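Example record for the data management plan.
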Amino acid sequence: MKSLQLTAFGPPAESVELVEIRSPRPGPDQVLVAVEAAAINPSDFLIITGRYGALPALPARLGAEGVGVVVEVGSDVDSGRIGERVLLTSSTLIGTWSEQAVIAAAEAVPVGGADPVQLAMLGINPATAYGLLRDVVPLQSGDWVVQTGGNSAVSRTVSALARHYGYRTLNLVRRPEAAEEIAGISDAVVVIDEHLGENIQKALGGDQAALLLDPIGGPLPADAANAVRPGGTVVTYGAMSGGSTLLPPGQSVFRQLVLRGFWLNHWRAATPTADIARIYRELAELVDNGVLWSAVDATYPITEFSEALAHAQQPGRTGKVLFRF
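Corresponding structural encoding:
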């Protein structure tokens, strides 16, 4: 079978190769899945360049999420699962940029008949959005959630899920065009400029947020921190700026804001497998119902991996890039 492998940590053009390898066989409690679609994510490039929080031994198969159909099961798995469409995602790298992948049967969540391309993007961003909204602090109906980087892929999913669960989102963006792009999924959008504090107060209508989500990193604007109620929580879950999230000292000392991090791998490890499966089934239903939807820039066959990886790194993309098998 064809598979993309990482041979060394470095630039994708130099370290990723398309190889022909023997099809894997499932162990007793595993299933073999014919991959239908697999997403390319920013975290994949962090792995490729050796800058991610958990790195594989080399050479390694690449790809951390996708969707496919079960074609073979291990000796301890019900043969009735053959033919199921299942989600391919795990806290470890499972190699979804391949024609076939093996995964533990307990982690292979049946996801029904929704668009496989949309389902292939379910494992990371929607799960991150779910964890940020449901498992960080207890939110009440009507609570505000403020997001820096409000037009990022995860932020858009947070906005859609928040609306579904009855929360409200205020998304901060840097460009008026970005504000227009997400106006339909946000309760309020504010462009970061010299009037940021005033515009945030106006958008919140006198309320304060219970939660601020930051995928950007770097010093957090004081006006954004002021939008959070005293004792509220700021969560950093990315570093798009390359820097560390920093709270102004007065926010942590006098207003008692709590700064914490979120990483999907830690969340998965701390959440029982049965609960993970339930959450993914719920998210798959939301994809099927049209509540969750992610823009797609392009799909590529695995043989055009160089073009696909270059496309996925282009600035200004409007959607995801995926491999389609």
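Summary line stored alongside the record: The chain is about 30% helix and 25% strand.
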